[in-house]
Amino acid sequence: MGLIQCKDVCKSFGEKVALDHVSVDIPKGKIFGLLGPNGAGKTTLIRIINRITIPNGGEVLFNGRQITQDDVEKIGYLPEERGLYRKMKVGEQAMYFARLKGMSSREAAQELKKWFVRFGIESWWNKKVEELSKGMAQKVQFITTVVHKPSLLILDEPFSGFDPVNAQIIREEILRLKEEGATIILSTHNMESVEELCDNIALINKSHLVITGGVDEIRHKYGNNNVELVYTSAQELRPVAGVFSVLSDQDDAGRHTAVLALDKESETNEALKEILAQGVAVNSFKELVPRMNDIFIKLVTEEE
After folding, report:
1. Start-end of H helices in the chain
2. Is 286:253 a contact under the CB 8 Å cutoff?
């Protein structure tokens, strides 16, 4: 059983259906990617989990029971629409948000100092938010989201506004928080981050669930049985009927890189046997698994 279970969640705004019987199970201690095009219903589901919005139907369970406002205090939520008070000092504001999450002044000051040191931003404490760049303000808001050590983190486009170096810092922090036991919902359009970070995903489009499951499982499911073969030979590899066809073969002074399409009925061992029978030296042989970006586009386009 997951930390969060959404069962047949429905939500409409007037005649606009935002979520149509969406069910997802978010495992404990994992990073769960919530994917979908703009307007698909992701943010509505996040707001329902946070009890900002009430569903018209279905239920959300937290640790196997109906989620309550007390449970929401165990959640760290970084919304896509960032919101820091521009005239307040950074440290004062960070303390304010930490206190809102139930931390004492002493505990908040200790934990915030650790985070400011970790991010190398100790000198920002007495700056006003309006003095910070967008990326700097993003760092502060990330800290205020995680400082109370929530058991569930909901991060909506957490890499928005960051340069590649700082985006990587945030990725590393997300992985570290997972290692410390946090469950993380990651809503993002960045498919590279999905592959790098997420254990499981759910794809929502036009208010309903398209697919959910493990990232590796989904990538293999949508694979087309192609493999990359690197081999050494004076001759090009010949296709073998019923076993494999050769989609491409690039020759670089006798070192070939080929893409083969395995017959659905053939096995990898059978293909390798036929390849070796042609007298070539096999350097590497690996499955070509489709990228999440390609799967995302394929599924959403099919929905359209």
Report:
1. 42-49, 69-72, 90-100, 105-118, 134-146, 164-179, 191-197, 215-221, 268-277, 292-303
2. no
Query: Is the confidence at residue 281, as pLDDT, over 70?
Result: yes
How far is the C-alpha of 83 from the C-alpha of 96, rounded, in Å? Answer: 13
User: In the numeric block, which tokens belong to residue 233?
Assistant: 């030979």
Residue 208 CA to its chain's centroid (Å): 19
Dmax (CA) for the chain in angstroms is: 74
3-class DSSP state for residue 42? helix
Q: Where are the domains positioned within the chain?
A: 4-220, 224-288
Task: Tell the CATH topology of 4-220.
Answer: Rossmann fold (3.40.50)
Give the CATH number of domain 224-288. Answer: 3.30.70
What is the tens place of the pLDDT at every residue in 149-202? 999 999 999 988 788 898 999 999 999 999 999 999 999 888 888 999 999 999
Count of residues making up the chain: 304
